[in-house]
Amino acid sequence: MINKKYIDAVASRLKDLSPDLYDGDYSDRYHPPAVKVINSVISQALRYKTQVYPRLVDFRRNRPDVKSVRQLADLMASYTTSLEFLTKEVNLRNQGKAGAIDGLVTYFCGLIEASPTVPEEKTLKQWAITAEPAGSEVLNTKGVGIATFQWLRMLFGADTSKPDVHVMKFIYETTGQRFSEDECILLIEGVAAKLEVSERVVDGAIWYFMASS
Questions:
Q1: Pair 103, 141: CB distance under 8 Å
Q2: 196 — alpha (psi -120 to 50), left (phi > 0) or beta?
Q3: Which tens digit of pLDDT belongs to each residue from 159-170?
Q4: For residues 135-140, average pLDDT
Q5: CB count, 10 Å around CB of 179?
Q6: How far is residue 140's CA from residue 128's CA, in Å, rounded to a whole number?
Q7: Helices in the chain by DSSP H: which ranges?
């Protein structure tokens, strides 16, 4: 249970910074599933505008035929290793991120194959909506922590938040208290309820402010 005074403090500061909170055009949600998976992993610990977004744009331009997770799985299978795939196709050499993408693709392909008559995007959206933060452990994929897991859920349509470095820093600066990742998610839920907006809106407003400051 999060103390109401912390929820009020974050809500008050956020309202002062962004008086007109609205569900803006978060273009990430319009990427095809294959790109959403890549996005969720490589965006951690990299600057989004200069290091992540250009790579996503290049991948979509170079691989316009790779849209579904199954197509991404086929492309990855054409390489000797997941690291080779990430290096050649995303211009990023990072064993941890390569392994995380491989683990997510394997997991999602399992979900998709379990419901062969359901469109892939519908299956993944349903997963995102019904999953819980603790579900990151179910994936059993090294390199996919709660922040990555939550961002992935948001990309596939869940109304939630991600306890990344920006969100956690904003909360600490505002309250003077350090919260765990799970507590940050609960705090954002409380703030969203107080401001009568979606959790996605609160998360986005914090991210945009912190990323540009």
A1: yes
A2: left
A3: 999 999 999 999
A4: 65
A5: 18
A6: 17
A7: 4-17, 33-42, 53-62, 69-77, 82-90, 95-114, 120-130, 136-139, 146-155, 165-175, 181-195, 199-212
- Strand, coil or helix: 41: helix
CB distance 43 to 52 below 8 Å: yes
Locate tokens 């819980």: which residue? 132
pLDDT of residue 48: 87
Tokens, residue 26: 């978060």
Plot region of 198 (φ>0 → left; ψ -120 to 50 → alpha; else → beta): beta
Residue with tokens 């579904």: 68
Whole-angstrom distance, CA of residue 191 vs CA of residue 186: 9
For 86-125, write each residue's pLDDT tens digit: 999 999 999 999 999 999 999 999 999 999 999 999 999 9
Residues 140 and 133: their CA atoms lie apart, in Å, by 13
Express each pLDDT in 117-133 by its tens digit.
999 999 999 999 999 88
Structure tokens at 120: 């892939």
Question: Residue type at 182?
Answer: D
Please give the Cα distance from 61 to 65 (Å, whole number). 9
Taking phi over 0 as left and psi of -120 to 50 as alpha, with beta for the rest, 143 belongs to: left
72 Rama sector, left if φ>0, alpha if ψ -120 to 50, beta otherwise? alpha
CA distance 100 to 189: 27
